[in-house]
Every structure is written in structure tokens, then in C-alpha cells.
Amino acid sequence: MSKRKGRNKVYTIVPFKPNNPKTRLRSYLNPHERERFAFCMLGDVLSALKGSEVSEILVIATENARVLRSMENKKISCTVCDGGLDEVLNSMFRTMNQSALIVMSDLPLITAPIINEIIKCKEDVVLVPGRKGGTNSIFLREPSEFRTDYYGLSFLKHLKIAEERGLSARVYDSFLASNDIDEPDDLLEVLIHGKGESAKYLKKIGIGIQIKDKLPVLVRARTTAPPVSRL
Amino acid sequence: MSKRKGRNKVYTIVPFKPNNPKTRLRSYLNPHERERFAFCMLGDVLSALKGSEVSEILVIATENARVLRSMENKKISCTVCDGGLDEVLNSMFRTMNQSALIVMSDLPLITAPIINEIIKCKEDVVLVPGRKGGTNSIFLREPSEFRTDYYGLSFLKHLKIAEERGLSARVYDSFLASNDIDEPDDLLEVLIHGKGESAKYLKKIGIGIQIKDKLPVLVRARTTAPPVSRL
Asked: Which of B175, B176, B188 to mutate to test the interface with A (most CBs of A within 10 A)?
């Protein structure tokens, strides 16, 4: 099926929302902290990607974030795109003549070896499931043959799209890559398994874990500033 | 460090609580359904183990459950053990002269290939993390050199125990094996990724998924009997 052209070069796209991100974390982090934390998670993802064998990384931000420019270097560039995620990605895919990897920017536990394993899979499409039916990463040998359909149960939708288009698909099974951080309970995973900026930042602002009734719960030390807004 | 004796035989232990299990699922499943569902999950785990290369499987139940006997065959046996999980396991380890695999009975998404990969790892100790700091499976080359310490953040405790005892440790990274089913949201994963008895049972009693505000939520069809008790 696939023509396998450009198989050695992997163009990586990291969608990122810099302004008012991660609203479901607002009971633990104030707006400023949520923005900082989102940047830390992006930093961890870029760090893993830089250590991997992908050739080029493009961060596509939803809004004009000047601070993103500071992350640019020989391997990483940033751009601002209007429109929904599917619209932006699928219009890029149409003219792309090399393999593509899409990695969400809220996967602070992903590592370079995981990314290398994903892009070495032989299938046309590799899907990395996230919790609750999400798709945390997609690898496409031939981006023009696929289209994304995020939101809702995107994992099942992406599997179906691959099947309908006669593309071989593989589900890449990783706990670390399955952890997209959206809800307070997800922060437990960052604190337990994280070794990067995101875990450090949470600890710095006093977020920790306590055991209550034999179960781990998130706590915020009283010595640190409480969230400015719990809206 | 390890003497590697009996490395080709893997004795597998599956702890199981047959009576009043999974109390955190009570808002969706009545007591009878929780018991049935726990047996379905055990069935899925045993099915994966039977298809794998482990040599012998022992289900250790907390209480006398006659129905467990129906699962016994040449490869599977059942026993009832008094005492806490750590106490039971660690007393078994003391005299064990072959490799041991402990697999929790609430991992309906685990597969035979995952189990085979775990038991082929070369390290002295292999830990399979679950959500919220749990340890869903442990593989021990030399059980007598290790001791378990479940509950609380057992994953970090088990890593530390291996380190303190000079045992090489590996973290086995699997999304499917990370899903121990304790809370209603965990049922989403069974419905999305499950292919065994547990997923079939949930669908049969009318548990499904709806998208609300772009997020998947668990729903129970009105045509099925509501839980007897929501206590």
C-alpha cells in the first residue's frame, strides 16, 4: 500500500495551546501556574523529541505566544495556526511527502526511546492510546493517505479511518505515553513517574501526594500560595 | 547477583477477592454485578495467562469461593489464604525455588504477549506500574530475595526494595497492563480497549459511553435493571 518514500525522515508536529490551558486543573493551579505548567510539559515533550531520531520538530500553537520563540533552534521551529486541530493537520498532510509524527504537548512522561520505537514500527499508521479514548500520538508513513479526527473517542475513530483506507495499523502500548495530563488525578502520575521539568515544577509549587484511606490523593502544601482563582 | 535457578519455569500467583469486590464501582454496579464483573476480569487474566508461557497458575482467594473450583484445570489451581496479601506472598516467596510472577486479577486488558515479554526481561525484578502508584504485576527471578509491600504507593516502594537489596529492576511500560479497574472511569478503558469477558459483560448489562461536552462519560441504559443498592 505505502510507497515508503521519505521513510527515513520524520517530520514531527506538536500542537500546543499556550493561553488559558488545562482548565480542568484549576482547582489545584491558578491561571498563571497552569500556563507555566503547560510550558513545562511542552519542554519535557520537546526534550524527549530532541533526544530521539526525529529529524524536524514543528510546534503549532493556537495563539501568538512570543515566548515560544525562545524554544526555537536548528531542530525546532514554531508557528501559529488558526483553525481547529484536525483542519490544520489535515491540510498539512495533503502536501506532505515524508513520514509524520504527531505528539501532543501534554505528555510529560514520554521518553526518547518510546519515540524511537514508535517511528520504527513497520505499519502504515501507529496509534498511541491515551486515557479515555484519546490518541496521544500518531505516526503516519504517508500522511496524505490519512486524516485525523480528534476529540471524543478519537482512538476508535483513528483505528476505523486506517481500516477504511486499507492502511495497516498498530497500537503502541505504553503507560508512560498514555498519560496526557488533563485532570487533577493525572498529576499523581507526573509526581510518581516524572523526571523532568513538569514534575519539578509541581513539587516546587507545593503539590504532593498523601495517602488517605489507603489511597493516594493530591495535596497542596499550605506554605505555597493558593490558587488565585478557583473558577 | 541472581543464581538464576529455575529460570525456565514461572510460577504465577493471581490474588483474588471474590466477595464484595470493587466497592468503588457501586454507583454503576450492584453487589451481584460487582461479583460477576470481578469473575469476568479474573477470567480475562487467566485467559491471557493460559495463552502465555507461564508454567503454573495459582489463584489465591481471600475467602472460600466454591465457584473458583470450576476454573481449575491442569495449569490452574485455587487456594484460600488467610492474612494480608503481603503476608501471604512473602511467606510463599521464602521457600520458592523458581521464578514468580504476580498478576492482579483486575487487569482485563492484559494479553499473553505482554505476559511473555514481562517474563523474558533479563532483570532480577520487573515492575508493571498501575495508575496512581500501584504495582499491577511483579516478576521475580528469585522470589526469596524480594518482599512485596502493597497498598499506598507500592510502585515506588517496590523500586526501593529492589534497590536496597541490590537487585536489578526494570519498569515494564504497558498501557494495557496499567489499567487495574477500580473506579467508574476505569470502565471506559474496558469498553474502549477490551475484547474479553469483562467488556462483553459490561455491554450486556447496558453500560456504555456517551460524549458530553466533548468528553466521554459512562452511561447505563435505562432498559437494564438499575443497581439494587447505591450505598
From this structure: B175
- What's the distance, CA A213 to chain centroid? 33
Q: What is the DSSP letter of B220?
A: E
Task: Indicate if the pLDDT at residue B182 is higher than 70.
Answer: yes
Q: How far is A183 from chain B (nearest CA, A)?
A: 12
Check if B151 contacts A (Cβ < 8 Å).
yes
Asked if the C-beta of B189 comes within 8 angstroms of chain A's C-beta atoms, the answer is: yes
The set of cell numbers assigned to B156 is: 515506588
Q: Which residue of A has its CA nearest to B213?
A: A152
ipTM reported for the complex surpasses 0.90: yes
- Confidence band for A230, pLDDT divided at 50, 70 and 90: very low
Cβ neighbours for A65, distance < 8 A, ≥ 6 positions apart: A18, A19, A80
State whether residue B181 sits within 8 Å of chain A by CB.
Answer: no
The predicted structure's pLDDT at residue B167: 98
Nearest to A177 by CA among B178, B42, B63: B178
- Residues A164-210: tens digit of each pLDDT: 999 999 999 999 999 999 999 999 999 999 999 999 999 999 999 99
Q: Rounded to an integer, what distance in angstroms lies between the CA atom of residue B1 and that of residue B206? A: 52
Partner residue facing B216 (CB), from A152, A173, A193: A152
Q: Is the pLDDT of residue A156 over 50?
A: yes
Integer CA distances (angstroms), A5 to A102, A127, A148, in order: 18, 20, 21
Q: Do A153 and B216 touch (CB under 8 A)?
A: yes
User: Helix axis angle, A31-50 relative to A197-204, nearest 10°?
Assistant: 150
The number of angstroms, rounded, from the C-alpha of A200 to the middle of its chain's C-alpha atoms is 18
Q: What is the pLDDT of residues B61-113, one digit of tens each?
A: 988 667 788 888 888 999 998 889 999 999 999 999 999 999 999 999 999 99
The grid cell for B40 is 469476568
Output the CA angle A61-A63-A67, nearest 5 degrees: 75
Check CB contact under 8 Å for B192 and A156: yes
The partner residue sitting opposite B176, judged by closest CB among A173, A188, A209, is A173
Out of B114, B173, B193, the one facing A129 most closely (by C-beta) is B193
How many contacts, defined by CB atoms under 8 Å, are there between A and B? 65
